[in-house]
Amino acid sequence: MIHVDRNKTPFPKSLGTTGVKERKKALAHYKNADSSTKAYPFKAYKGDDVKLALDRLFHGKCAYCEAVYASVQPMDVEHWRPKGEIKFIDENGKKKSLKPGYYWLAAEWSNLLPSCIDCNRQRNQHDIVPPSDAVAITSTGIRTPEEDPDQARPLPSERDLILEKIGRGKKNLFPVLDDAYIRNPEDFKKESETVLILHPCEDHPEEFLQFVEGAIVRPLPANVLENPPANQEEKALCSIEVYGLNRSRLVYQREEHLLEIKAHLYTVEQLMKFFDTIQTRKTKRNTKLRQIATDLLEHEMNTLRRYCRPERPFALMARQVINDFFEGIHSPLGGGERR
Fold first, then answer.
1. For the chain, first and last CA: distance in Å?
2. Helix (H, G, I), strand (E, B), or coil: what is residue 138?
3. What confidence tier does 337 reach under pLDDT thresholds 50, 70, 90?
4. What are φ and ψ of residue 76, in 5° steps?
5. What confidence tier does 222 reach under pLDDT thresholds 50, 70, 90?
6. What's the CA angle centered on 6, arms 57 and 216, to 5 degrees?
7. Closest CA to 199 of 282, 132, 110
């Protein structure tokens, strides 16, 4: 998950017309509602212009896990604050349900996000837990092709056999501090709950999440930031669990992406060593070799920067490892200083 500026995409016009009308009808429908009241048939949030705006805003990626859904599955238009029902587990560990949910936000632009099926729907997943001694991903690690653990690693289907299945996916989950939910639009105008999951447009996920070796995500240690955000660890843990950010097949996909990035990092490091060896003697041959190496190095550095762009999958993980690399090098092309 990365931070996304919602203002970069124009407001869908249908939410200001059809959405406003629908909200008035929903307010009347739920005026004297209780848990037995039939759910209002919301439709405005499914408008084509809404889907297009969300797709453009998040570049065809899931707002939560950053996987590219656009090529393999339709988008789920997700209500961050659930519109029809809120499910939660109380302090005694009992499953509870509240109806209706935040029905007045069903066509609210700020409450809509694009999601892949597995982040949005509750399904049984093989969940991977980071080991207690897990080390954060840095630009060091896989240094040569021979050290690539993929060569001796079992297939994903074989690895899943050792993992237990557990329910993951947001659906109607919306954890807030002390289960203090706001139950009507009038109170919602006056105050807000302390929400315990991340919103990509309201939070900065890099202040909450950290990737460790194996491409597993965990809460960012509090001592990393000088002024960590409120409820940092709890908010990170709830987000990882609710969105299913460590479901096995997602982790394996991130890990393959990480191996690609580290292959480019390895190439850059070897090119920099090559520069060092030919820099001592300035001959015509070395001048030609330097030019070739410069072209290759520029290509690899630009490739690494592209991995960090917001439209690329798993950009938060890529930024973590690539920024660490750029901060620690002194490139022949300029910039950075070796630590």
1. 29
2. coil
3. very low
4. -90, 120
5. confident
6. 70
7. 110
DSSP 187-239: HHHH----B-S--TTTS-GGGTEEEETTTEEEEPPGGGSSSPPTTHHHHHHHH
- Return d(Cα 300, Cα 270) in angstroms, integer: 11
Cα torsion at 127, 132, 135, 137 (round to 10°)?
20
Residue for token digits 């509090």?
222
Each residue's pLDDT tens digit, 173-195: 999 999 999 989 999 999 889 99
* Closest C-alpha to 244, from 150, 141, 126: 126
Cα gap 159→118, rounded to integer Å: 19
Q: What is the dihedral of CA 134, 215, 138, 274, to 10 degrees?
A: 130
Is residue 336 pLDDT above 50, yes or no? no
Give pLDDT tens digits for 70-105. Answer: 787 888 999 999 999 999 888 787 888 999 999 999
**The predicted structure's pLDDT at residue 188:** 93
Q: Give the CA distances from residue 215 to residues 145, 209, 257, in Å, rounded to whole numbers and listed in that order.
A: 18, 12, 9
Distance CA 337, CA 331 (A): 8
The answer for residues whose C-beta is within 8 angstroms of residue 113's C-beta and 6 or more apart is 54, 58, 63, 64, 77, 78, 80, 199, 200, 201
Beta strands 209-212 and 165-168, pairing class: unpaired
Residue 169 in this model has a pLDDT that exceeds 80: yes
CA distance 102 to 50: 19
Provide the b/e sequence for 228-240 (b: ≥16 CB within 10 Å). eeeebebbbbbbb
User: Which residues lie below 8 Å from residue 304, measured CB to CB, with a gap of 6+?
Assistant: 261, 264, 265, 268, 322, 325, 326
Residue 140 or 8, more confident: 8
Q: Quick check: 146 pLDDT over 60? A: no
* Residue 141 CB partners (closer than 8 Å, separation 6+): 213, 262
